[in-house]
Input
Amino acid sequence: MDVKDVMNPNVVTCSLETPIREVAQLMKQESVSGIPVVDEGKVVGIVSEGDILKLLTVPEHGGLWLPSPFEVIEVPIRELLNWEETKNMLEDIGSKPIREIMTKSVYAIGPDASIEDAAAVITKHKINRLPVVYEDGTLVGIITRGDIIYGLGQL
Output
């Protein structure tokens, strides 16, 4: 069985300039966990939920800190300021283009490849989806782990 037999030809995509916030909303609306980034119909990157979640990494505070009596009043104000800075940072991040966080080196597969080959690429590189492209890089579909399992069940 070939990739073209089980791939989804209706691919949710975004462009290089699509804001991160819009990509996150698109993933939610379409119930997908990753989206190819295309430029003039060709795959130039891919973005996953993991790429977006990495933006939310919060640095850990090291060690135990006990405030002095003077700092007890200062702490709530300091924490409030830190929250405002974090909120502003997240708003700024959401407006940046997806090209700033997308994965640029994309594993892809051709429509005439076997689903066994697709499974091998997905397993070897520990990824969840493969864009399906023609030799010139033009996107024609996407195949996921679920699509492969479905295809194997049809054999």
Notes: The chain has a mean pLDDT of 84. The beta strands are 14-15, 34-39, 42-48, 129-133, 139-144. The longest helix spans residues 71-95.
